[in-house]
């Protein structure tokens, strides 16, 4: 096999206003905007480690496409992993994930080997909670996918979400941390220190 | 400063080398070596020369007593000034400069944006609030939305330009690598899209009010250009083919390097070509969102209000139309496959006139002479109604029996009771009457609800035909042939590997059965496929289960749940995915090893290549 553009593609799905963009922005840029959240870029990227080497995590934002399933299918077919976001304050947003999940099944076939994460965002707004975590957990079990509650606003579980998602990937080792060769670098550090002194 | 980083150097030299490479015909081996070396150098120099904007975020605390080293806390932002060394970088945090381990930080992605884009925004807001206290927050929000529309549009234009100039143009120069047809498959009509969007963004800029952005009137722009956006339909429909072709080509390293060279030369962000090619699909879906947002913050008294409202509606329609065409096109493969599974097919292919299954079910057909009744499966497509007979033993096998042209037919609802012409008593019956030939077909359902459903379906068929005429939907001959070819290929390859999922628990009414081999479908006999084995054709038959939901949502779910589930389309997708996963399994480590061994076979260059290999790691880090 020749060298490939080694990217790992994650597609983020969910109804409008559940915080897909906020989650991605929080993860990639570390920021959160209370008042005005722009439609995010089409694709975000992040350097991650993959099989002890470096690769690009490509996060495809699907904002806007949930009303257009045929076009959504185009994003699904290229994804390696999927994040399905709903808001814990809206039952409707969870309902809207079902057709998306079915589409993923339809296109990807064997979903058990594909990392899928069901995410209940806005867990900081629990007073107006409409979806109990136990419910979502049960749904995740029937979908054979993982589940997590997050808050992009409080930066709760955001990094963990992406890390867990990558942990679900069994076909290769992907990780957010690029620390595969620490001991080597430790050695290198000594070497370099010497050099610096000389200069 | 303990040690100044490398002075800035232009990227011209390696850039030229790359340009030359794209033109000349080096032997692949040598080309590979040179390309990887040049690429690495190019990016590294770019990185250094753009040192001021490369920011990294600390992942861990770096505690150091060494005054040549830079200490920082996790989360600090460090400006990377020199990354020539793989493990130790030179950078600045706060007011200090020093060495730090590269592994302790991660490079910020999307470096092209200001590191903290909230600050200037807040300042803007503050200044304006000071100047005009009265300005409502709604105006500020409208300003934000308008700025966003403009900025995303500019970004998008840049993407399109990068693809057209960075990829398409370079590919055209290499007739030895790409045929015109291949380019058409990979890039579709992206150049037309680029042209249209250029005109569109120009119109937007003209209407943009720089001093008071919230007063800009953008609605009319969208309205004026709404028809142009329909070209996205062709692009979206072609996109799956593009992906298949790309994954086929990128199995050859020569193409991988070529595309990578194109990307670097154009200084594009670190996303593979198929990522870039998806942007138009994403973009056309986003207009309705942006316009909805704009409308939200447009006061009904605003001069732009009516236009924005109309624009939102128009752009929603455009996206819906594109979506619908995409869906229909996905269907034609299924229809082709369905047809090829019917025994004894006669006459022209279904796709010549039809492209959508509207309804299907079992009806009793009462024929004229002796008032004989026959059980037949009927399939209502746009323009025609096909009827088939079930095999006596194998109930899932269908024999083609005939078709009715819906265009000249009149549907007559009949009352229960004695039929005057045939002198039989009928129940739940309707008549299809052909005005020109005077032919008449009497059909009965078992239950009254079924009759109602059929009558509604006939009405829907007419609506569909009319709608297609209005929107100008048609299948090109090429698409039709491709679908028939795919269907026949499907017959050869047999059952797709993945079992049809989603049957469990889904509100699926049309279920698909995939029985074992039966006779060879007629379609294949007529086509010239001498190599086709007759032993493994595959039969697919639709069986209608009872609909549970109201009919209006019925078609929605049918399209979604794909009555003809085992399609070539999904097979192609699955194939592409398999290829994908294959290429990813062999990800960096092995690929790197291979590259090095390949390159070191050329002993002269091996030292340099290992260096290049080191630098490649930096490439991955530093593409900004």
Write the topology of this structure:
The complex is a heterodimer of chains A (199) and B (624).
Chain A: E1 7-14, H1 20-29, E2 43-50, E3 53-61, H2 69-78, E4 81-87, H3 91-95, H4 97-108, E5 116-121, H5 133-143, E6 146-149, H6 158-168, E7 174-175, H7 182-198
Parallel strand pairs in A: 1-3, 1-4, 4-5, 5-6
Antiparallel strand pairs in A: 2-3, 2-7
Helix pairs in contact in A: 2-4
Chain B: H1 12-23, H2 28-49, E1 55-58, E2 77-82, E3 88-93, E4 96-101, E5 105-107, H3 118-131, H4 137-173, H5 180-187, H6 190-207, H7 219-225, H8 231-249, H9 253-265, H10 273-296, H11 305-341, E6 357-366, E7 373-381, E8 384-390, E9 398-405, E10 409-413, E11 417-418, E12 425-426, E13 429-434, E14 440-444, H12 448-471, H13 477-493, E15 510-513, H14 522-526, E16 541-544, H15 551-561, H16 568-585, H17 588-600, H18 606-622
Antiparallel strand pairs in B: 1-2, 1-5, 2-3, 3-4, 6-7, 6-14, 7-8, 8-9, 10-13, 11-12, 13-14, 15-16
Helix pairs in contact in B: 1-2, 1-9, 2-9, 2-18, 4-6, 4-9, 4-10, 5-8, 7-11, 8-10, 8-11, 8-16, 10-11, 11-13, 17-18
GO biological process, one term (chain A): signal transduction
Function (chain A): Displays low GTPase activity and exists predominantly in the GTP-bound form.
Propeptide (chain A): 197-199
